[in-house]
Amino acid sequence: MTFHTEPGARGRRRMRVGPVGRWVMHRTTNQARRRGGRQIGMNVLVLHTVGRKSGQRRARTVSWFADGDDAWLIVAVAGRSGRNPDWYYNLGVNPDQASIDLPHRGTIRVHAERLEGDRRAEAWQRITSEQPRYIRYQAKTDRQLPIIRLSAV
Length: 153
Known about the structure:
Pnp Oxidase, Chain A; alpha+beta
């Protein structure tokens, strides 16, 4: 199973990440691991995926929203880009090879599922109620921001 969404026609172009950008992402990920799970007023976790092309392990910091005791919702924002983030496609190809790091809980193996229809609409309502900034993120691109549910395995 792979996740699929049509790329948007409107949104910022994805820029290549150079050495400084990789350093910033690495530093942000390490801070989330060490200091716990809040950055810019949102809960964050470290998402581990397996690259769909390379097969290498990847780590990225993403914000999350609770969906029960052992499930988390994440949104594929990608910085207002017209394209989804790479981790989204990695999860689509390898939904059972993912894990997350959460403060005070350690590493948890998860299964990724893309929400559709009414389930997505309900999740979007909860997410935007908790963090209205996601409404602005959605307004910056014409692609529908995918919502992924991560369930503990």
